[in-house]
Specification:
With 97 residues, the chain is α+β, with helices and mostly antiparallel strands. The chain has helices spanning 34-49, 63-68, and strands at 2-4, 7-14, 20-25, 53-59, 72-80, 84-93. The chain starts with a strand and ends with a strand.
């Protein structure tokens, strides 16, 4: 979670399998390195836990952020429910702890 001036401006989650979920930044705080800070902290936490790889399903908007942090795209997905969505499965190897 990222807090600025007592306000929650972003959050994410890392599960025990290394899945990065719900990376969200309040639009009022976009382009202020909030997501970068949270993702760097998530990578550090994963290393501390001994996680060997991180995965996520990133939106096309979030894809460049994850790529800047070493994630690659082994699979692109097209989802069709009530609306059509495109996201990308991404992975970052951390290596042995």
């Amino acid at each position: 979670m990222e807090i600025i001036d007592g306000r929650v401006v972003g959050f994410t989650d890392l599960d025990d399998d290394g899945y990065v979920d719900m990376l969200f930044v309040d639009p009022d705080f976009g382009r202020q390195r909030v997501a970068t800070s949270m993702l760097a902290a998530t990578i550090a936490l994963a290393r501390q836990r001994g996680t060997v790889a991180l995965t996520t399903y990133a939106s096309l908007t979030a894809k460049p952020l994850f790529e800047r942090h070493g994630f690659v795209v082994p699979e692109e997905r097209f989802l069709s429910r009530d609306v059509e969505l495109t996201n990308v499965a991404m992975r970052r190897e951390l290596g042995a702890a």
